[in-house]
């Protein structure tokens, strides 16, 4: 394919060189003439493993050249990769100035008839917040081209997953390829561009592709901060943090796995809250600051409050709650977030009915019974004997369980309002119905 790459920084330079080495005819574009000259001389404008020899080779064979002329680049390509920077503004917001400028230039070049035949596809590789492409860049492109994105012009958001220092290796062996396509033909063009590369390919809506890069980077930052905070605490306690993490990382069932990484309701139970509090207290006693770990419980509490806020938004007073124990298949109520949710709603004066097939007041014993008598002493009058009793009572139903008896009985159509805390199996269909509210989806 004939490809133009806008921006010859790390992402653009590596993308251009690697695509050229795959057999594509690539032209790099940059406003910095020094970068353009370096590439045309077969030299890399960035310091990166393997990039120097790669650029030298593809420039020598004629597969890669560079220019400062946008019109020339558009004329000589069918796909344009936009790899310009999106730095932070002083207030932390995303700077889209360079993205807007390049999008306008590409649109103008296309409108001037620089593109000879066929549909041009614009592929945004720059990191941008969800909504940026459809709400900001596509209108700029359409205005300048005088055509419709997804019809006359292809548009794709294709985030990169390149780490500086290993970016060439990452390009040829990506963890995944994400294609946020405006239409299937746009996605097909990018599929052809990367044909032959390994790894799973995800063809998703444009905003999903934009969001994925932020999910990745936020998690990477969180992992580093998590490991460093643990290291600081364990050093203060006289423990070798690397020995701890060797064992931690060996657990591929719960730790390094998909476990606990699906948005849902708040966590609770007899272990997580207690142990987090103990670890934070130990750090405080050792005079070690751990801002990430010390805010996990407050983050959890805020997430629980989102459920209360959804009930308040519904504007109705009669509430049904399905689920009470902290985990399905148990009657353990200790630090259950659903008990906390019931307590908050009851305290705000809501008329509450609760059903949990595993919870019967007459069967609660020991610490479990003591906990509920302290936290929700009026539980006996709130518990219902059946799903139907709760549905008959409720104007708003909070669903905190996937009990098949509950799922099969939940009505559609807006009455009662459904507040989904677990992402119901049919949540995707319910999202289009009136009266459905998902907690975090």
From TrEMBL:
Keyword NAD belongs to the record: yes
Residue intervals of the UDP-glucose/GDP-mannose dehydrogenase C-terminal domain: 320-427
Keywords: Alginate biosynthesis, NAD, Oxidoreductase
Name of a matching Pfam family: UDPG_MGDP_dh_N
Known EC number: 1.1.1.132
UniProt KW Membrane keyword: no
Domain of life: Bacteria
Pathway: Glycan biosynthesis; alginate biosynthesis
PROSITE patterns: PROKAR_LIPOPROTEIN (PS51257)
Family per similarity comment: Belongs to the UDP-glucose/GDP-mannose dehydrogenase family.
Name of this protein: GDP-mannose 6-dehydrogenase
Protein's organism: Streptomyces camelliae
């Amino acid at each position: 394919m004939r490809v133009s790459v806008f921006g010859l920084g790390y992402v653009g330079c590596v993308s251009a060189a690697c695509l050229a080495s795959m057999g594509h005819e690539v032209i790099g574009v940059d406003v910095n003439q020094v970068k353009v000259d370096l590439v045309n001389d077969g030299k890399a404008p960035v310091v990166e493993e393997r990039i120097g020899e790669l650029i030298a080779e593809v420039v020598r064979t004629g597969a890669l050249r560079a220019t400062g002329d946008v019109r020339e680049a558009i004329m000589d390509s069918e796909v344009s990769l936009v790899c310009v920077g999106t730095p932070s503004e002083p207030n932390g917001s995303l700077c889209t100035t360079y993205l807007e400028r390049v999008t306008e230039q590409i649109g103008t070049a296309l409108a001037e008839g620089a593109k000879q035949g066929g549909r041009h596809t614009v592929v945004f590789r720059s990191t941008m917040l969800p909504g940026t492409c459809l709400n900001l860049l596509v209108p700029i492109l359409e205005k300048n081209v005088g055509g419709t994105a997804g019809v006359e012009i292809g548009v794709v958001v294709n985030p990169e997953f390149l780490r500086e220092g290993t970016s060439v290796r990452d390009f040829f062996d990506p963890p995944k390829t994400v294609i946020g396509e405006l239409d299937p033909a746009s996605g097909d063009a990018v599929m052809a561009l990367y044909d032959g590369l390994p790894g799973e390919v995800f063809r998703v809506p444009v905003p999903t592709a934009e969001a994925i890069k932020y999910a990745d980077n936020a998690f990477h930052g969180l992992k580093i901060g998590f490991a460093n905070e643990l290291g600081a605490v364990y050093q203060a306690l006289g423990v070798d943090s690397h020995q701890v993490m060797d064992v931690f990382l060996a657990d591929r069932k719960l730790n390094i796995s998909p476990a606990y990484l699906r948005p849902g309701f708040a966590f609770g139970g007899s272990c997580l809250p207690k142990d987090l509090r103990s670890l934070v207290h130990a750090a405080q006693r050792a005079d070690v600051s751990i801002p990430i770990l010390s805010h996990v419980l407050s983050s959890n509490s805020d997430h629980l409050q989102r459920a209360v806020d959804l009930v308040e938004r519904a504007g109705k007073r009669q509430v049904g709650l399905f689920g009470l124990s902290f985990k399905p298949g148990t009657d353990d109520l200790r630090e259950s977030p659903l008990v906390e949710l019931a307590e908050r709603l009851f305290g705000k004066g809501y008329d509450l009915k609760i059903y949990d097939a595993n919870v019967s007041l007459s069967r609660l014993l020991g610490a479990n019974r003591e906990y509920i008598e302290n936290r929700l002493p009026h539980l006996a009058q709130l518990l219902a004997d059946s799903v139907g009793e709760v549905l008959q009572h409720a104007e708003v139903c909070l669903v905190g369980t996937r009990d098949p008896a509950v799922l099969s009985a939940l009505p559609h159509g807006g009455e009662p309002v459904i507040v989904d805390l677990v992402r119901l199996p049919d949540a995707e269909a319910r999202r289009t119905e009136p009266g459905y509210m998902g907690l975090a989806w």
